[in-house]
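Entry: (thale cress) hypothetical protein
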Amino acid sequence: MGVDVKRFLVVMLLLRICEYAAASTFPLALRNCSDHCGNVSVPYPFGIGKGCYKNKWFEIVCKSSSDQQPILLLPRIRRAVTSFNLGDPFSISVYNKFYIQSPLKHSGCPNRDGYSSSSLNLKGSPFFISENNKFTAVGCNNKAFMNVTGLQIVGCETTCGNEIRSYKGANTSCVGYKCCQMTIPPLLQLQVFDATVEKLEPNKQGCQVAFLTQFTLSGSLFTPPELMEYSEYTTIELEWRLDLSYMTSKRVLCKGNTFFEDSYQCSCHYGYEENPYIPGGCQDIDECRDPHLNKCGKRKCVNVLGSYRCEKTWPAILSGTLSSGLLLLIFGTQSQAQNGEEHAHIQIAVPESMSLSYSSPNIVVENSSFSLDTKPLMPHKTQ
């Protein structure tokens, strides 16, 4: 392989390094703190280890388990966490969510010893039960209620009678045949949950199960009710808020809460992403890297802070830039080598919006002004 070809490959590799470095993501956790437990990302204000979480409510204990996948424990509410989800900057909702395991309530089930409890109490915490959860009851002779501080706010009944079984979707959805589901009334900001199960007909035996879950049990997510008797846990969606009234960054969008004084939920403003709860945590989204995030089509997409712009005349300029810039790049490397210097100085002709910078003990790459005045790769030999 010729010397010039090798130099060309080295230069192209450096350009790729610069590109990947620019596209690197920012950590979700505080500096010098772990942002993962197993394969689960842990975003601040949650944290693992002393000094890595906002307060004790957000402390995560990463505990090893027998199946090699560690368990995330939230000690203050005594629940295991399965995942986290910061507010989506492209969504109307800025709610920050996380998901916990919660036990099911069983009664009269032969495969369960005694009477189990599904109660959850989040009072005093910054957490509350998401209205996206569904109250679910399973069984053939079941009347179930969702209780909140002594009040029954939601309930449904299940039966195994033929009058419901004949319904077209009875075997693939919770419509009353062995299974029923009810949505939670909106805007309640619930922090307490428990379930009550009763028999529709006292003289009939049967297993009754009740629980909250984030899933709508239908279609591919439908679990035959008789199998729920053997289940121990389901997944509940919780939401959380913080006192962030001091937040002033234009990159962060915070939404107040009328139910909790000085309580806010934040997300990165449109055009930014990452973690809004870390100082400087909202970083610009490069919409030009993903054609689904911009509407430039065949026009040139130029990324700017928090947005992008489309340039109609850019394709013609880009062609000239890449062509002449590449020639200048290779010629610069060659000319320095011909002078016998160990330290090479390489200039790349690129516009400001495509700025690159890379340096090492042997190679320096820097911007130069846009120019179409280029020299040939190899000098012409004189006869």
